[in-house]
Amino acid sequence: MNTMNQEIDHWLVNMAGELQDIINDNPLMIGIHTGGVWIAERLHKLLKLNSPLGQLNIAFYRDDFSRIGVHPRVKPSKLPFDVEDQHIILIDDVLHTGRTIRAALNEIFDYGRPATVILAVLIERSGRELPIRADVVGKNMTLKDNEHVKLSGPEPLALEIKTAE
Predict the structure, then answer these.
(1) Is 70 part of any domain?
(2) Is it true that the peptide bond before 76 is cis, omega within 30 degrees of 0?
(3) Is the Cβ–Cβ distance between 50 and 26 less than 8 Å?
(4) For residue range 115-146, what is the model confidence (pLDDT) as tens digits?
(5) Cβ(77)–Cβ(56) under 8 Å?
Protein backbone atom coordinates (compact mmCIF):
# COMPACT_ATOMS: atom_id res chain seq x y z
CA MET A 1 0.00 0.00 0.00
CA ASN A 2 1.42 3.34 -1.06
CA THR A 3 -0.38 6.47 0.16
CA MET A 4 0.28 9.98 -1.14
CA ASN A 5 -2.41 11.91 0.73
CA GLN A 6 0.05 14.54 2.01
CA GLU A 7 0.73 15.55 -1.60
CA ILE A 8 -2.91 15.77 -2.73
CA ASP A 9 -3.50 19.26 -1.32
CA HIS A 10 -0.37 20.52 -3.08
CA TRP A 11 -1.53 19.01 -6.41
CA LEU A 12 -4.97 20.60 -5.97
CA VAL A 13 -3.49 24.06 -5.36
CA ASN A 14 -1.32 23.68 -8.48
CA MET A 15 -4.33 22.49 -10.50
CA ALA A 16 -6.39 25.49 -9.34
CA GLY A 17 -3.58 27.82 -10.44
CA GLU A 18 -3.41 26.20 -13.88
CA LEU A 19 -7.20 26.33 -14.24
CA GLN A 20 -7.25 29.99 -13.23
CA ASP A 21 -4.89 30.72 -16.12
CA ILE A 22 -7.04 29.01 -18.76
CA ILE A 23 -10.68 29.38 -17.71
CA ASN A 24 -13.12 31.90 -19.10
CA ASP A 25 -15.32 34.08 -16.93
CA ASN A 26 -18.04 32.21 -15.10
CA PRO A 27 -17.20 28.59 -15.96
CA LEU A 28 -19.42 25.77 -14.77
CA MET A 29 -17.76 22.88 -12.95
CA ILE A 30 -18.90 19.26 -13.14
CA GLY A 31 -17.40 16.40 -11.12
CA ILE A 32 -17.71 12.75 -12.12
CA HIS A 33 -19.15 10.54 -9.35
CA THR A 34 -17.57 9.86 -6.84
CA GLY A 35 -13.89 10.73 -6.74
CA GLY A 36 -14.24 13.42 -9.37
CA VAL A 37 -16.92 15.10 -7.25
CA TRP A 38 -14.59 15.11 -4.23
CA ILE A 39 -11.82 16.74 -6.32
CA ALA A 40 -14.33 19.17 -7.91
CA GLU A 41 -15.58 20.27 -4.48
CA ARG A 42 -12.04 21.23 -3.48
CA LEU A 43 -11.25 22.97 -6.78
CA HIS A 44 -14.62 24.77 -6.78
CA LYS A 45 -13.71 26.31 -3.39
CA LEU A 46 -10.12 27.12 -4.39
CA LEU A 47 -11.33 28.88 -7.54
CA LYS A 48 -14.14 30.65 -5.63
CA LEU A 49 -16.68 29.82 -8.36
CA ASN A 50 -20.14 31.31 -7.89
CA SER A 51 -22.10 28.78 -9.95
CA PRO A 52 -23.34 25.58 -8.29
CA LEU A 53 -21.29 22.41 -8.70
CA GLY A 54 -22.67 19.79 -11.08
CA GLN A 55 -22.36 16.04 -10.52
CA LEU A 56 -22.37 13.34 -13.19
CA ASN A 57 -23.03 9.67 -12.64
CA ILE A 58 -22.06 8.12 -15.96
CA ALA A 59 -23.03 4.51 -15.11
CA PHE A 60 -25.63 4.27 -17.87
CA TYR A 61 -23.32 5.89 -20.43
CA ARG A 62 -20.41 3.48 -20.10
CA ASP A 63 -19.56 1.34 -23.12
CA ASP A 64 -19.02 -1.65 -20.82
CA PHE A 65 -22.42 -1.23 -19.13
CA SER A 66 -23.66 -4.61 -20.37
CA ARG A 67 -20.60 -6.33 -18.89
CA ILE A 68 -20.43 -4.58 -15.51
CA GLY A 69 -24.14 -4.00 -14.90
CA VAL A 70 -25.59 -1.37 -12.59
CA HIS A 71 -24.30 -0.78 -9.10
CA PRO A 72 -27.27 -1.10 -6.74
CA ARG A 73 -26.81 2.48 -5.48
CA VAL A 74 -26.53 4.37 -8.75
CA LYS A 75 -27.45 8.00 -8.08
CA PRO A 76 -28.76 10.28 -10.82
CA SER A 77 -26.67 13.10 -12.23
CA LYS A 78 -27.28 16.60 -10.89
CA LEU A 79 -26.68 19.45 -13.29
CA PRO A 80 -28.32 22.48 -11.66
CA PHE A 81 -27.60 24.67 -14.70
CA ASP A 82 -27.99 24.77 -18.47
CA VAL A 83 -24.83 23.59 -20.28
CA GLU A 84 -25.80 25.06 -23.67
CA ASP A 85 -23.05 27.46 -24.87
CA GLN A 86 -21.38 27.39 -21.43
CA HIS A 87 -17.72 26.90 -20.56
CA ILE A 88 -17.43 23.64 -18.62
CA ILE A 89 -14.64 22.35 -16.39
CA LEU A 90 -14.99 18.56 -16.18
CA ILE A 91 -13.25 16.98 -13.19
CA ASP A 92 -12.30 13.36 -12.51
CA ASP A 93 -9.99 11.71 -10.03
CA VAL A 94 -8.09 9.29 -12.30
CA LEU A 95 -7.74 9.31 -16.08
CA HIS A 96 -6.78 5.81 -17.18
CA THR A 97 -8.33 4.33 -20.34
CA GLY A 98 -10.35 7.42 -21.29
CA ARG A 99 -13.67 5.54 -21.32
CA THR A 100 -15.10 7.33 -18.27
CA ILE A 101 -14.40 10.72 -19.83
CA ARG A 102 -15.96 9.65 -23.14
CA ALA A 103 -19.09 8.55 -21.26
CA ALA A 104 -19.16 11.83 -19.31
CA LEU A 105 -18.92 13.88 -22.50
CA ASN A 106 -21.75 11.85 -24.04
CA GLU A 107 -23.95 12.61 -21.04
CA ILE A 108 -23.07 16.31 -20.98
CA PHE A 109 -23.95 16.61 -24.67
CA ASP A 110 -27.32 14.99 -23.95
CA TYR A 111 -28.01 18.06 -21.78
CA GLY A 112 -26.83 20.53 -24.42
CA ARG A 113 -23.83 21.69 -26.43
CA PRO A 114 -21.26 23.48 -24.29
CA ALA A 115 -19.05 26.19 -25.80
CA THR A 116 -15.90 24.51 -24.40
CA VAL A 117 -14.95 21.67 -22.08
CA ILE A 118 -11.71 21.71 -20.11
CA LEU A 119 -10.70 18.38 -18.53
CA ALA A 120 -8.87 18.38 -15.20
CA VAL A 121 -7.83 15.20 -13.39
CA LEU A 122 -5.97 14.60 -10.17
CA ILE A 123 -4.08 11.60 -11.61
CA GLU A 124 -3.31 10.85 -15.25
CA ARG A 125 -1.96 7.33 -15.45
CA SER A 126 -0.63 5.12 -18.20
CA GLY A 127 -2.87 2.75 -20.15
CA ARG A 128 -4.93 5.01 -22.43
CA GLU A 129 -7.30 3.20 -24.81
CA LEU A 130 -8.98 6.28 -26.30
CA PRO A 131 -7.36 9.51 -27.58
CA ILE A 132 -8.37 11.60 -24.56
CA ARG A 133 -5.93 13.84 -22.68
CA ALA A 134 -6.43 16.12 -19.71
CA ASP A 135 -5.81 19.87 -19.97
CA VAL A 136 -4.82 20.08 -16.30
CA VAL A 137 -3.20 17.23 -14.36
CA GLY A 138 -2.27 17.04 -10.69
CA LYS A 139 0.15 14.11 -11.06
CA ASN A 140 1.24 11.83 -13.92
CA MET A 141 1.86 8.18 -13.05
CA THR A 142 3.22 5.25 -14.98
CA LEU A 143 1.80 2.06 -13.52
CA LYS A 144 2.13 -1.59 -14.46
CA ASP A 145 -0.83 -3.34 -16.10
CA ASN A 146 -1.68 -5.09 -12.81
CA GLU A 147 -1.54 -1.87 -10.75
CA HIS A 148 -4.43 0.49 -10.10
CA VAL A 149 -4.62 3.82 -8.29
CA LYS A 150 -7.65 4.38 -6.08
CA LEU A 151 -8.82 7.61 -4.44
CA SER A 152 -10.66 7.32 -1.15
CA GLY A 153 -12.41 10.12 0.67
CA PRO A 154 -13.97 12.54 0.98
CA GLU A 155 -12.20 13.31 4.25
CA PRO A 156 -9.33 12.84 4.13
CA LEU A 157 -8.56 12.34 0.46
CA ALA A 158 -6.06 9.52 0.11
CA LEU A 159 -4.51 7.66 -2.80
CA GLU A 160 -3.47 4.05 -2.83
CA ILE A 161 -1.72 2.05 -5.48
CA LYS A 162 -3.06 -1.48 -5.42
CA THR A 163 -1.69 -4.53 -7.18
CA ALA A 164 -4.15 -7.01 -8.65
CA GLU A 165 -3.22 -10.60 -7.98
Answers:
(1) no
(2) no
(3) yes
(4) 999 999 999 999 999 999 999 999 999 999 89
(5) yes
Comparing CA positions, the residue from 115, 111, 8, 102 lying closest to residue 54 is 111
Relative to beta strand 53-56, strand 28-32 is parallel
**Model confidence, pTM:** 0.90
Domain count for the chain = 1
Range of the domain at 36: 5-61+83-163
Summary mean pLDDT of the chain: 90
Q: What is the CATH number of the domain that holds 151?
A: 3.40.50.2020
Collapsing DSSP to helix, strand or coil, 20 comes out as: helix
Sign of the C-alpha dihedral, residues 129, 44, 65, 159? Answer: positive
Dihedral, CA of residue 57, residue 61, residue 64 and residue 66, to nearest 10: 100
